[in-house]
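Single-chain item
Fold in token form
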Amino acid sequence: MTFPNAANGVKKLFTAEILTIVAIVSVIVTAILAVTTYAAGTVATQSESLGAAGIALGSLIGMFVTGGAFVVLAIVATILNLVGLIKATKDDDAFKIALFSTVVSFCLIIVGGIFSMNKMAMAYSMTESLGSIASLFVTIYTIQGIRNLAVKLEDYDMDHKGNNILKVMLVVIVLTFIGKLTSAIFFGIGGQIVGGWILIAAYVLSIIQYLLFLSFLSKAKRMLADK
């Protein structure tokens, strides 16, 4: 028994996950630069310091560059995810729910980008939180689809690994969601610097989630290639 469609799809999901990790790193750098821009801008305004103004300007330029990189990487990764899941749906129905959730997540990325460009920090953070929920469904049903294939291939060890890694990822995802929600609250009450650092911590934590998922996709890719 072979699943060529799923094998091809998982390969694309694996590549998309690598791009997503790079995109998250871009977001972290962007967030750090945003906090630096805000802090330096405040100092420059209060003390009329040219040095602080220069730091603020440099951070602002860097923020636009890394922010743009995130948008491009996120779009490419989403397209690869869509193509990969569309192929995988031919071999297992669980991928269909993952596909629908990916579309929702993509829409939230676009809306979040609009909020970010208009400096609507609170709305952006809330959109990010909703995006985390959509991503959660993508993760759950992608892993479930792979587990279903593992059972069909009688690779019960892979099925067990999928169950364990999903439990760990759910804990990380919940903690990341709490972090993003907390940052949104701080943004709402005017605590941009504190909210910014909490958001950065949440993104760093999310990298763990993506690395775990990448590891599982790598195993799935090998499993499907061996059959």
